[in-house]
Amino acid sequence: MSSHHFVREQQEPALLILALDEFTYATLGELLEWVPTIICNEASWEKLLSWGVKVDVLLCTRDFANREQVELHAPLQILLMEEDKEKELCEAIRYLKESGQRGVNVIGLPHRHLLGLQETFSGMEPVIWDGALRYVFVKSGYYRKWWPGGNLQLHAPEGSFIEKSHNNDAHIIPITYATFVELEEGFTTFTSNTPFWVGEFVPYPRG
Asked: What architecture (CATH level 2) is domain 8-131?
């Protein structure tokens, strides 16, 4: 049974799953709705099958043990690759680009790798889910949004600067690793002369 719906013209972001350590089926929630393409690796595939999620593309090596399972779930496209987990993301993004898909939600990509992936995500609109944080890539250097308060993480090259503006009050934030920023209720704007990532805490269900 398919757990996602058919979407025409790649209007909604694809879903790329590299690890499910922090996720349950309830956690995935709305990400499984209106998804044109679901891609996963070998490590995530069996859990997704147990949840009844129909996978469209499987990243696997030539010695993948569950060949019979693959045949049972046809049509399932296989992307064969060498035994190099670091290439899983690159292979998946290459496939999406060639398919004309630009938006993608990536689950299980450690945020510490994000700064080295700007070229990989070139031309894409990625959203990264790492544990309790959802990271949005701000390639324009300008990001404005209404928040109810709380805090978030700014992720950019160490030593760079991001300006935070709220209610006509602006100040410069020097970026170090895992730079957390407290927010007040209302619209807040972040600007920088270089691209950066904004990580928001997501209160998703755990059951």
From this structure: 3-Layer(aba) Sandwich (3.40)
